[in-house]
Design brief:
Layout (H helix, E strand, L loop, with lengths): L1 E15 L9 E13 L3 E8 L8 E8 L2 E11 L1 E8 L3 E8 L2 E14 L6 E11 L2 E15 L1
Antiparallel strand pairs: 1-2, 1-10, 2-3, 3-4, 4-5, 5-6, 6-7, 7-8, 8-9, 9-10
């Protein structure tokens, strides 16, 4: 197993509503430290986020099998907990828990590009969040390894 400390950039964009919505997107840009690990079969990238207005921490982990980089799982723990899988054209049921509240939703992955290795790269995905078959938001999420530290 090999791990590296890295500096990563995260760009997240969320637009409320379905394709017909003209809502302005909410954009979040973050640069933070993380760790990338190659255990021989899987690649993991882990980092901490502050996803609410209080100072509690959420630990996020993106993971994929090296022989299947087109399917990426996101596992969050801490203040926010969730587990989702993303694969182009697929729908995944998820639960999101924050401050004792939980809600169920589905993610429908529209595109996913994964060039991440222990030496760097990025994971980019576009997906919709649905509740009871209704698109609640359109989302873009990109994690890029900027450099080793």
């Amino acid at each position: 197993m090999e791990s590296k400390k890295v500096k990563i950039g995260i760009i997240a964009k969320q637009t409320d509503g379905g394709e017909e919505s003209s809502a302005e997107p909410t954009v979040m840009n973050i640069i933070c430290e993380g760790e990338i690990t190659d255990d021989g079969d899987n690649i993991y990238i882990e980092y901490e986020e502050h996803l609410s207005e209080n100072d509690e921490v959420t630990r996020s982990r993106l993971v994929f099998a090296k022989d299947n980089p087109g399917t990426v799982s996101l596992i969050r723990s801490g203040e926010v907990t969730t587990s989702c899988s993303f694969a182009c054209g697929e729908r995944c049921a998820c639960a999101y828990n924050i401050d004792g509240l939980s809600f169920d939703f589905c993610v429908v992955t529209k595109s996913l590009k994964n060039t991440l290795t222990l030496d760097g790269g990025s994971i980019s995905m576009q997906y919709n969040m649905e509740v009871h078959g209704i698109t609640m938001s359109r989302n873009e999420y990109r994690v890029t390894v900027i450099k080793s530290i």
